[in-house]
């Protein structure tokens, strides 16, 4: 299989992973192609004898991984990772913004004094997780593990659990809970004299991530949840709609390099999930597909969501987390996140906490 990537800590020889039917995981270069996809497809890796998997890399969050993650809690400090639901003032994509309406109890027909409220929004407008149905393979229309997320199938998923890889399945296995690591790229760039704007196409490479990890003296372990700080949410915070729109007018932004080499690095590090404080985790802009030719648009959405079944989180607020990590010198922590409990859910506010 060759050497493991660095920085990476594999399970101990006595680990219960060796009792898992899917362990050891194949290396990226050993993954096949599946039903019209390029080589590198993980469909079937986590399937059971009579089951088609809907969890993807969340399978790596085993009881052992979660128990070991407890060791990260030493201070009793918790930090929210959710940007306000109305943090995005500008209408960048035509998605419905937050609508929060207060109602008196008399308006609801109860006849007493008090308050209710109604909330509506598009789940993509602020900090959220994407389910595997969010971005299918654009050529075949298939999502992770060969599922087809049509409107009809999503309606069926609301009645029959486990027939689509939508987010209510994540709740069935207890949400997303485990050890997480922050790689603070924007802080690394600023302290190393690297000129970066969150609002320009700036691909963060696999080597960049390894350099940041080394500078922070932090290691990645089997089943970790990786958070990458690009500085974009911090730069948007406090701006009004016109200012945000001006900042994002080019359509370009910083993010992970949208390439096969980045997909290989992420898979071979055996991460359970990945999230960032930018719009799409991956860098976007006119050159965003120049580094690869496997997918014509949003390559890492294809690799992570469709090919691997690896959850991606977008528009996370990592500012307070970054400050605490710098002050404490500790960049690993316990993370807990639970999506909304709605059958057939495509994406959800993350409701995430980092706990030290």
UniProtKB/TrEMBL annotation:
It holds the Pfam family Cyclase. Gene3D superfamilies: Putative cyclase (3.50.30.50). Belongs to the Cyclase 1 superfamily. GO terms for molecular function: arylformamidase activity. This is Cyclase. GO terms for biological process: L-tryptophan catabolic process to kynurenine. It comes from Corynespora cassiicola Philippines. It comes from the Eukaryota.
